[in-house]
Amino acid sequence: MIEIETIAPHAHRIIAIAEFRQGDVKTLLNFVKERNESDGGGNLLIDVTSMASFSFSAVAEEIGHMGTFMKYIYGLDRIAIISDEKWIRTAARLESALLPRVVYQVYDDDEAEAARAWVLEETDQPHRGAFREIDSGNPAIAAYELSGRLDREESERGVAMVRAALEAPECSRLMMVIRHWHGFDPDAAISRKVMVGKLELLKNLERYAIVGGPAWIGNLAGFFGALVKPAIKSFDLDEQDEAIAWLSEGLPDPEHEMAGEVCSAP
Fold first, then answer.
1. Strands of the 231-235 sheet, one edge to the other
2. 141 has which bridge partners?
3. pTM for this predicted structure
C-alpha cells in the first residue's frame, strides 16, 4: 500500500509500505492527475524503506499511465528517494542519468533527515552534513566523521575544512572516522578543488588514521602508506581509541597545551 501526505505547501511525501499493488497505482494516479491539473511543481519525497515487494500487475498498470506520471515528474523541482535496498538506489541513479531534465537525489534509510531537509528546502545542498568535525581530545590531531554520501559540494567543503585545520602550526595528524558511507558522486572524484586539496594535505600530514569504512579502503590505505609521505594506518570502527593512541605517539601531552589552542577549521 501507499500513503501520500502533504509535508509543506510545496512538498509531498509518498510512502510505500509492504506490497505495492495495482490498487496503489490507481491511488497514485489520482494524486498525480490532481497535481497536474493544478499546474504541478513543488518537491517530492519518495520513501520506499518499508516496501517489501511489488506485483507485476502494478508495474503493468503504472507503465500504461507513464505519460501522466512523466508529466508530473518533469514539473517537479526536487525529487528525493529514500531506500534501504541497494538495487533501488542504483536503479534510481541510473534512471536519473537517462532521463533528461530529471534529477533524483538518492538516500539510504539512515539519511532520511537529510532527504527531508532538502525536499523542504531547508538546505540547498542535498548531502550537506555527511562530513563533520569531531573532537579528538588533542590539538595536534584533526578529526572528522563521514556518514552518508559525498557529492561534489560536500567533498569540496570537507577538503577545505581539513586544509584549514592543518594550517595551524601545531596540527599535523588526521583521523577520519567512516560511518554508514554510501559512496560518492562521480563528479566529486574529478573536482579540481578536491584533487588539489588532497595533494596539499599530504604536504602537511605526519600521520593519517582511517577508522571504519569498507574493507577496500583499509587495503588502499596499506598500499599508499608505503608510497606517500604521511604514515597511513587503518583501524576497525570500534578501534577509534587505538587510532588516537597511534596518532598521539610522540606528541606533547594535550593537558599541558595552552587553553584555547584547538586543531579545527575556523
1. 131-134, 141-150, 173-184, 207-212, 231-235
2. 173
3. 0.70
